[in-house]
Automatic annotation (TrEMBL):
Places the protein is found: Membrane
GO-annotated cellular components: membrane
GO molecular function annotation: metal ion transmembrane transporter activity
UniProt source species: Lucifera butyrica
Assigned protein family: Belongs to the GDT1 family.
Superkingdom of the organism of origin: Bacteria
Protein name as annotated: GDT1 family protein
Family matches, as InterPro entries: GDT1-like (IPR001727)
Keywords: Membrane, Transmembrane, Transmembrane helix
One Pfam family from the record: GDT1
Membrane topology summary: Multi-pass membrane protein
PANTHER family, alphabetized: TRANSMEMBRANE PROTEIN 165, TRANSMEMBRANE PROTEIN HTP-1 RELATED
Transmembrane parts of this sequence: 36-59, 66-83, 131-151, 163-182, 188-206
Length: 223
């Protein structure tokens, strides 16, 4: 249950403001919300099953302590990635093909290498289990993208989520720092190393948050 709830919680955070959530908003401006939700669910089940197998079987070749350190660092990376923000990388959405398979293919490809997929790999490696993490991350994606689908279906445009993204990023970074403190050898955790790491992290947050973001308009659904 711990693996399931942790996976659900962190994937919800990772998906807030992510490009795949924006993609769900965009699809919902073209298609019925039921179709979009079904396509997102199917794509997530396939994609995250692939991710948890990768994360689970890593432990057979790499010592667990190294994987835990890498997973902790990755959560800090997810936090910085969340601050940076995502865009859809293009203009209007095309709405002319089979709705379900269009959503499935678009969402599956967008999730490949995305931070929510990488978070799934990290969680599977950390808990060394498949089914609870798979179900937890899938549930988290459906909850987060359900928000996007509802927004797209009712408003037909992207809803700014700056406060939510900063809250999500803060939780990720705090979790990553705490996990690093537990996982790293004590002889490494000297005062200069800790201070230097925090200064570097603060500088990265400052630089990333200063980056100008481009928002793309989404086509409204034609009734």
């Amino acid at each position: 249950m711990t693996a399931y709830l942790t996976s659900l919680f962190f994937v919800v955070l990772a998906e807030m403001g992510d490009k795949t959530q924006l993609l769900a908003v965009a699809f919902a401006t073209c298609y019925r919300w039921q179709t979009v939700m079904g396509g997102v669910l199917a794509a997530t089940l396939v994609n995250h099953l692939f991710a948890v197998f990768i994360g689970s079987y890593l432990t057979h070749w790499i010592p667990m302590e190294y994987i835990q350190i890498a997973a902790a660092a990755s959560f800090i990376g997810f936090g910085l990635w969340t601050i940076r923000g995502d865009d859809l990388g293009g203009g209007e959405m095309e709405c002319s093909y089979n709705p379900f398979w269009t959503v499935f293919a678009g969402f599956f490809m967008a999730e490949m290498g995305d931070k929510t997929q990488l978070a799934t790999v990290a969680l599977a490696a950390q808990f060394n289990t498949i089914i609870p993490v798979w179900l937890g991350t899938t549930t988290g994606m459906i909850i987060a993208d359900g928000v996007g689908i509802l927004a797209g279906a009712t408003l037909g445009r992207k809803i700014p989520a700056k406060v939510v993204k900063w809250l999500a990023a803060t939780v990720f970074i705090i979790f990553g720092l705490g996990s690093l403190y537990i996982s790293l050898p004590q002889q490494v955790l000297t005062l200069p190393v800790i201070a230097g790491g925090l200064v570097l992290l603060g500088w990265l947050i400052y630089k990333i948050s200063r980056r100008e973001k481009i928002e793309f308009p989404l086509r409204r659904r034609t009734l």
